[in-house]
Amino acid sequence: MHEGLNQWDYVVAALAIGVAGTLLLVGWTLAAMVRAERRRDKVRGGK
Amino acid sequence: MHGFANPARFLRLARWLMPLMLIPGLVLAMGALAWGLLMVPPDRLMGDTVRILFIHVPAAWLGMAGWSTIAISSVIELVWRHPLAGIAARAAAVPGAAFTAICLATGSIWARPTWGTWWVWDGRLTSFLVLLFLYLGYIALASPAQRDAASGGGASRVTAIFGLVGAVNIPIINRSVVWWNSLHQPPSITMGKSAIDTAFLYPLLIGALGFTLIFGGVVLARMRTLLAHIQAEARLRRKAMA
């Protein structure tokens, strides 16, 4: 702010990293869970 | 506690508890961020950059809560040999590391306009960076331990001991701004006390609750993933031996 910085650029960058990181974490976790449970069910099914 | 030692019973609980944590968590967290972005007034000293608080503080809380989960689960695994405790510890590592990385990134972005620098090697920032490295080490160590646990081995005890030893860093992070001079401000919220105005405090607490629910939902989902891997590997081994 002392160097004529636009504070909103920093706010938007920080929130974008936080929101994108959280949504990526949730999406990746759910996708991995569905894949792992499908594989387990497939293995169980192929007795 | 031992009631949930049965994976089938735990999975029945996790199936309905996981969306019950994730969906309200996402609504509360995103609502609190929108509240902080659009409705909270600028701070007298920090101006609009104070809005970074609403993502930075919950991420810092969850970075430390993640390792506390690892440490408590490691004690339960080592002392009571609870079969799900090791899985819970390993499930908390990736979300804990993710929130630690988010905390470091958002803190660095906040530091540039506020302190005039992206980074200083002071007690708080350095101990939090050490926490990220501890998470990365734990994840690297937990991966072979997971395979070992699936085959009935005992290498997961090494991971549990690492989880316990790493917990030494948590009080250091917590007290770093009191013990050493730092550009980082001292604690604003302590037991029963807050130095934060209610205009900032309410969205902060709602956001912290929301992100904590997301963290809990992610840990449950990762526990289901790890259990599914173990069950699939056990079935494949039985089939190979038959």
Share of helix among residues of chain A? over 70%
Could you say which overall geometry of chain B the principal axes of the C-alpha atoms support?
globular
Average pLDDT of chain A, rounded to a whole number, is 90
Alpha-beta content class of chain A: mainly alpha
Structure summarized in a few sentences:
Chain A has 47 residues and is mainly α. Helix content of chain A is 83%, strand content 0%. Chain B has one domain.
What does this structure look like?
By secondary structure, chain A is mainly α. Chain A is 83% helix and 0% strand. Chain A has one helix at residues 7-45. The longest helix of chain A is centred in the middle third of the chain and has 39 residues, at 7-45. Chain B starts with 6 loop residues before the first helix and ends with a helix. In chain B, 77% of the residues lie in helices and 2% in strands. In chain B, a hairpin with a 2-residue loop joins β1 and β2. Chain B is globular. Chain B is an all-alpha fold. Chain B has helices spanning 7-38, 53-80, 83-115, 123-150, 156-166, 169-179, 198-241, and strands at residues 189-190, 193-194. The longest helix of chain B has 44 residues, at 198-241. Chain B has one domain. Chains A and B meet through α1 of A and α1, α2, α3 and α7 of B.
